[in-house]
């Protein structure tokens, strides 16, 4: 998981190796610059509302009303957008997991840069590889096709695999939070404020693969890409839209 924007640590609620439940609060951040922007947008919205109330309804005031209405709409949109960013300051566990690779400098008052790593969440039941494949390539992938999993970490070995299953329906909500952009992954998503569901911005399908060899990999989720032999030709699924994959390793918890 990464800091979504420049922010300051308020409180850290977990430690390295701790097991956490879905929805559990992990870290609190604040962003004074965003608070300032939100307050500016709120004041602007109030001013535009006041102008609308003061403007007349005659033709002479029509342009004035149009300007005020446009300004009000823009200010409210800015306010909503900043509020959405501020809500990311309370980081909760999206699934049952264990906290790993905790950034040991997350002390209260410390400033974080955008995309600065915070920690890794790992929680899964067994070995396997799951990938998100773009709609345009679905017709070229078949069960039992040979594949290679390429970890994001260049220090880890590549892993031979076979396509085990292909979901017939697209992902209405992303079932692999590891791959979501809001958690440092490459699948662009929007987070529903009311449910927390991660909604892919583009149509993607889940493809499950089974390793065909043993590999010495750490017991955690490992992001990467897959290269799949598709329709008699090697298709390098190299873009985020087509290739994001995660190796789920048995962790014993």
How is the secondary structure organized here?
Blueprint: E1 7-12, E2 19-20, E3 25-30, H1 32-54, H2 62-87, E4 90-92, E5 97-100, E6 111-112, E7 120-122, E8 128-134, E9 146-151, E10 159-166, E11 189-191, E12 198-200, E13 204-211, E14 222-230, E15 233-236, H3 240-243, E16 244-248
Antiparallel strand pairs: 1-3, 1-6, 2-5, 3-4, 5-7, 8-13, 8-16, 9-10, 9-14, 10-13, 11-12, 14-15, 14-16
Describe this structure in words.
- This protein is an alpha+beta fold and 253 residues long.
- It has 3 domains: 7-31 and 89-120, RNA polymerase II/Efflux pump adaptor protein, barrel-sandwich hybrid domain (OB fold (Dihydrolipoamide Acetyltransferase, E2P), Beta Barrel); 33-87; 124-248, Elongation Factor Tu (Ef-tu), domain 3 (Beta Barrel).
- It is built from 3 helices and 16 strands.
- It has helices spanning 32-54, 62-87, 240-243; strands at 7-12, 19-20, 25-30, 90-92, 97-100, 111-112, 120-122, 128-134, 146-151, 159-166, 189-191, 198-200, 204-211, 222-230, 233-236, 244-248.
- Strands 8-13-10-9-14-16 form a 6-stranded antiparallel β-barrel. It has a 4-stranded antiparallel sheet with strand order 4-3-1-6, with no helix packed on it. Strands 2-5-7 form a 3-stranded antiparallel sheet, with no helix packed on it.
């Amino acid at each position: 998981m990464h800091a979504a924007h420049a922010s300051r640590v308020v409180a850290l609620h977990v430690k390295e190796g701790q097991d956490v439940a879905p929805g559990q609060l992990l870290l609190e951040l604040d962003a004074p610059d965003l608070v300032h922007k939100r307050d500016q947008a709120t004041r602007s919205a109030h001013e535009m509302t006041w102008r609308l109330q003061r403007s007349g309804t005659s033709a002479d005031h029509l342009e004035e009303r149009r300007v005020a209405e446009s300004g009000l709409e823009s200010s409210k949109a800015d306010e909503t957008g900043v509020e959405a960013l501020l809500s990311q300051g309370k980081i909760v566990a999206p699934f049952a997991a264990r906290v790993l690779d905790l950034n040991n400098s997350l002390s209260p008052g410390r400033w974080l840069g955008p995309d600065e790593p915070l920690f890794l969440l790992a929680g899964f039941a067994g070995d396997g590889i799951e990938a998100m494949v773009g709609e345009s390539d679905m017709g070229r992938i078949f069960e039992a096709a040979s594949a290679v999993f390429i970890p994001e970490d260049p220090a880890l070995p590549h892993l031979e695999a076979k396509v085990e299953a292909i979901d017939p329906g697209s992902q209405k909500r992303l079932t692999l939070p590891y791959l979501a952009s809001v958690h440092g992954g490459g699948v662009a998503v929007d987070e529903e404020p009311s449910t927390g569901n991660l909604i892919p911005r583009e149509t993607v399908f889940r493809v499950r693969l089974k390793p065909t060899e043993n590999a010495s990999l750490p017991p955690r989720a490992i992001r990467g890409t897959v290269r799949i032999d598709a329709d008699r030709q090697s298709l390098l699924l190299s873009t985020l839209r087509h290739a994001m994959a995660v190796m789920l390793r048995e962790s014993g918890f």
